Amino acid sequence: MAEAEEKETRSYEESTDESEEDESEEEPKLKYERLSNGVTEILQKDAASCMTVHEKFLALGTHYGKVYLLDVQGNITQKFDVSPVKINQISLDESGEHMGVCSEDGKVQVFGLYSAEEFHETFDCPIKIVAVHPHFVRSHFKQFVTGGKKLLLYERGWMNRWKPSVLHEGEGNIRNVKWRGHLIAWANNMGVKILDMISKQRITNVPRDDISLRPDMYPCSLCWKDNLTLIIGWGNSVKICSVKERHASEMRDLPNRYVEIVFQFETEFHISGLAPLCDQLVVLSYVKEISEKTEVECCARPRLDIVQPLPESCEEISSDALTVRGFQENECRDYHLEHLEGESLFYIISPRDVVVAKERDQDDHIDWLLEKKKYEEALMAAEISQKTIKKHKILDIGLAYINHLVEKGEYDLAARKCQKILGKNTDLWEFEVYKFKEIEQLKAISRYLPRRDPVLKPLIYEMVLHEFLESDYEGFATLIKEWPGDLYNNTIIVQAVMDHLKKDPQNRTLLRTLAELYTYDQRYGRALEIYLTLRHKDVFQLIHKHNLFSSIRDKIVLLMDFDAEKAVDMLLDNEDKISIDRVVEELENRPELQHVYLHKLFKRDHHKGQRYHEKQISLYAEYDRPNLLPFLRDSTHCPLEKALEICQQRNFVEETVYLLSRMGNSRSALKMIMEDLHNVDKAIEFAKEQDDGELWEDLILYSIDKPPFITGLLNNIGTHVDPILLIHRIKEGMEIPNLRDSLVKILQDYNLQILLREGCKKILVADSLSLLRKMHRTQMKGVLVDEENICESCLSPILPSDASKSFNVVVFHCRHMFHKECFPVSNTISPVQFCNICSAKHRGPGSTILEMKK
């Protein structure tokens, strides 16, 4: 039975899918399945005429007068033979314990499903409708209504007798009735009425819009959305009515309630049933269309639409064409729509079929996305709803997504998605890698392979590396650089690289990669050799990182040829590992490199390489003359005679001048400046530095017959030598360039010196006067003498113990004190006396006497 039901459901879903346009991208709101099991058996021999639903069971009426109670799966739980003819309507109270049934032969039965309570009545006309009070189970609500030509209300009264009363008649057959709370709504040939059972007053009449339609062929559909909202569908018109309380001031003779139509709109097709879905409506429509073959109007598949009501129109949310059995022979009156409140379940009833429509859940949404090949959206939806979905697994969707991308040829995207989808599952990772290998796309997945947590088998990484080694050396080098060395068997990869180097020994990419592999394998010596051969920038980093200084003792020349500056910095930073002597020895045959090293050593510390300063003189002279003079000035260890010899041999005038002056031969140095350089400014500067009168005399004697030199001396000599000495020696009649300007400058310099002296004198006088006044104020102040002071001569207290005795005390401004009798007598005739203690140190103000007598 279960297999039959599954097959039935699948076949219905397939047929419903066929009814939709293949290119439609809009997801349906509902899903459908046939109610099978017992229903299938019933409808094979009979036809459904009506149905009502309860949360506990379903009640199905047939054309052969049978009423079946079914469970929600469609299995028959109970059967009632009510009449030999068609069952028109079945009504249940809210408890599901009482049922009302009416049939085409005029029979009406109201009975308890779980009690002996029962009512039977046969009328002389077909009874189309029956409705029991929603609270029929309660004793004071034992009421039901029936409808044929009249609308009758039956109430149980005294002695359990049923008393009928006419609620309405005279407007044709009663076609439909719905009872909700204290309100009864019914439809006849003229329109829809609503009765308030509390006041027993009819509160509205909603007339039928399209009177051209036969009410028996296009019956009215009624549905209560809640206790105060009635939905009416008739023909192709829909009205939503709201029952409202009338204000007391408006009542007069009117009912205390009234009805307001809040929404009204028309549909494309005729309405067979209505049901609420939140604030939307579910509409079952009867459709006719023109046959393409016969060009005759025929019955089409019914439609189930979800619409959003608007004040004067509606917005279609979804629309599904339903392939029900025998739809070609059905009329509008043959379809019914029942719904189960609170569960969004809708039952579409036709003579040969019962279809259940449900709101689609997240599993259905994912199914639709997968069907439309929207795998990424399906994966996202599954991740968001992973706690509620039951049918799908995130991993399965993800794997399907990867396969889909591979089939489309989007290998890079598929590989990238592996990171998120496969996570830490090593088995799935390895399976996907082999799948990418089969399609020759290992390169695509190489960038996304996990490198830490998890780590795959070494074989996987080796397989990828071999793929790159065969076709892409640069890609292979990139992977070796990015991947940790413990992911694969290093020996195997090294051997593979060596095999390729046999074919191409000078391939720099392979050599560089081999050096990195040697580094991972801690064979740093071999790596260093390759880096030096390639002159690779990482060689210094490798040496520092792995402390390879012992390996580079004999490779210093190679390092400096590659990058002298970096090499020298490294060697100087690590003198404890490679000594200065060893470096100088290694560079003996490369003096230019030896100079670079020693020069930088000297810049760091003038004393460390002192034993090589003599050698450096020749090196500077040969390779770096601009730095020779600074070296000679800063070095205290280079032999001056050797330096002078080298500079004289190479005719380095400036350096020779410096050395001569340093050796004390200033006159020869000055002569060299004048004769070789012919630079009076430099000669004057040199004389200023030496500050030697004889040197100035030599300079004047040498310049006296050279007018340009005289001009230079006149302009610069004024502050060091009396210009008169030079002016007196100038021969009469000698033309001296710019003589007037030079004499003016001398006078200006002289005036400036006078002004400076006068200014200094004024400052000194002002300061002396200020200090004198300060000293005078200080000396005029009193000096405290108490018991704690002592005589600096006898070292006894300065004040006598008996204060009544007279005493004399000598107090100096320096705070030294003496008894008058203890103070030594001065040998000088001067009346001013000085403190002996301070006079022994220095004579100055403050040491004069201040005599105190009593």
Automatic annotation (TrEMBL):
Residues 791-839 form the RING-type domain. The keyword Nucleus does not apply. It is a peripheral membrane protein. Residues 14-26 have a biased composition (Acidic residues). Keywords: Autophagy, Cytoplasm, Cytoplasmic vesicle, Endosome, Golgi apparatus, Lysosome, Membrane, Metal-binding, Protein transport, Transport, Zinc, Zinc-finger. CHCR repeats lie at residues 568-712. It comes from the Eukaryota. InterPro entries: Beta-prop_Vps41, Clathrin_H-chain/VPS_repeat, TPR-like_helical_dom_sf, Vps41, Vps41/Vps8, WD40/YVTN_repeat-like_dom_sf, WD40_repeat_dom_sf, Znf_RING. The keyword Metal-binding applies. GO terms for molecular function: zinc ion binding. Its main location: cytoplasm. GO terms for biological process: cellular response to starvation; endosomal vesicle fusion; macroautophagy; protein targeting to vacuole. Residues 1-33 are annotated as: Disordered. It is found in: Cytoplasm, Cytosol; Early endosome membrane; Endosome membrane; Late endosome membrane. It holds the Pfam family TPR_Vps41. GO terms for cellular component: clathrin-coated vesicle; cytosol; early endosome membrane; Golgi apparatus; HOPS complex; late endosome membrane; lysosomal membrane. Plays a role in vesicle-mediated protein trafficking to lysosomal compartments including the endocytic membrane transport pathways. Belongs to the VPS41 family. This is Vacuolar protein sorting-associated protein 41 homolog. It comes from Apteryx mantelli. The lineage of its organism: Eukaryota, Metazoa, Chordata, Craniata, Vertebrata.
